[in-house]
Amino acid sequence: MKKIFALALCAVMMLSVLAGCGGKNDAPADNTPAQNEPAATPDATPDAAPEAGGTIGVCIYQFTDAFMTTYRNALQEILEGKGYTVTVVDGANDQAKQNEQINTFITQGVDALIINPVMTSAADQIISTVKNANIPTVLINREPTAEQMAVYDKLVYVGCDAAQSGTFQGELILETPNGGDINGDGKISYIMVQGDPENIDAQLRTEYSVKALTDAGKEVEELNLTRGDWMRERGQEIVANDLAQFGAQVEVVFCNNDDMAIGALQSIQAAGRKVNEDIYLVGVDALDAALNEVSNGNMTGTVLNDAVGQATAAVEQMEALLGGKTFASGEQSVYVDYVKVTPDNVADFMG
Ligand code: GAL
Predict the structure, then answer these.
(1) pLDDT (0 to 100) of residue 18
(2) Using CA positions, which residue lies closest to atom 1 of ligand 1?
(3) Buried b (16+ CB within 10 A) or exposed e, 26-61
(4) 201 CB less than 6 Å from ligand 1?
(5) Which of 4, 12, 51, 283 is the most buried (most CB within 10 A)?
(6) What is the pLDDT, as a whole number, of residue 351?
(7) Tens digit of each residue's pLDDT (9 = 90 or more) over 63-93
(8) Is the CB of 143 inside a 6 Å radius of any atom of ligand 1?
(9) What mean pLDDT is predicted for residues 114-120?
(10) How far is the CA of 29 from the centre of ligand 1 (A)?
């Protein structure tokens, strides 16, 4: 993963050097967008290469989120490498704050916006704001419905198909030597550590990880399902409590993301359990910490949520919009594939 990232960065940085572009503007630590350079004129011809040097506002739902940190760093590097002036702001998990940040960017006259909404339920409002301001916008990470996006043709979503990541988590369990039924009682007993349940990724990973098991004809038993809001400390607390309550009954720990899985692992180890021997543990994202644990045998597997691939696709779509492209309704979602990560292929993703 690091290697792929480093190669991608080298490529964009070389391009920037060749083009003689600068445009560095470090993201402020606070949430106040910096004053931007004058806007470049976007090329009006569809599919033509846009002029570099425009100003881009990037809104991230929460800077403390581990996966979105990798993602926003990739976005910033790619955009700056292409000569854009970039300001990245932290919504601090507060939709009202993010709405203000979007309005500030609009007032400043940014050429395009890349927005990771705080709340999926705010999609209508965000879309109508950017539409009224006529700003080309790429939504990332939290997918609105096709109907919501259809009202504005200079809008596109870049992300992944969350159901796929859930299915892959279920398959990781099915591929273990006993198919997840460690105690041989004919059913797979699991706990589910969910992300933010308002988020489609959390909903679909929760549903499809278990669906993969039942579709394969397995009997399942849900011992507990608790929201952990994507956070490591919550993963640790939840799994500590569940192991205290259900003990050896817990055969599988499904975590909607890796940060919670890393927290879960701490509690699994503290309880004297051993992953891949008396309990299975899976996450999603392929954070570096999780790749290390998969490689050490302390996580059963994870699913690559390709931050660099999504950042690259988001910038490509943004440039298409700046080049004059418009999106037909029903064609406003661009997906990057998830990839299953197991001990067999984990080395391919490590630096
Ligand atoms: C998911 C990711 C989580 C968290 C979430 C935020 O795609 O797996 O770790 O970053 O997005 O919306």
Answers:
(1) 34
(2) 201
(3) ebeeebebbebeeebebeeeeeeebebbbbbbbbbb
(4) yes
(5) 283
(6) 79
(7) 999 999 999 999 999 999 999 999 999 999 9
(8) no
(9) 96
(10) 21
Q: Cβ distance 346 to 74 under 8 Å?
A: no
Residue 68 CA: which ligand 1 atom is closest?
A: 10
pTM for the whole thing? 0.85
Q: Determine the Cα–Cα distance for residues 313 and 33; give it in Å rounded to an integer.
A: 24
Question: Rounded to an integer, what distance in angstroms lies between the CA atom of residue 215 and that of residue 340?
Answer: 18
Single-letter amino acid code for the residue at 310: Q
Interatomic CA distance for residues 296 and 193, integer angstroms: 22
More confident residue, 110 or 4: 110
Which one-letter amino acid corresponds to residue 178? N
For the cut 60, the answer to whether the pLDDT of residue 253 exceeds it is yes
Residue to probe by mutation, ligand 1, list 158, 284, 287, 305, most atoms within 8 Å of CB: 305
Handedness of CA 132, 137, 145, 204 (dihedral sign): negative
Rounded to whole angstroms, the Cα distance separating 134 from 143 reads: 20
Q: Which H or E run contains 89?
A: strand 85-90
285 lines ligand 1 (CB under 6 A): yes
Q: How far is the CA of 174 from the centre of ligand 1 (A)?
A: 24
Contact 177, 159 (CB under 8 A): no
Burial-class residue 96 by CB neighbours within 10 Å (0-12, 13-18, 19+).
exposed
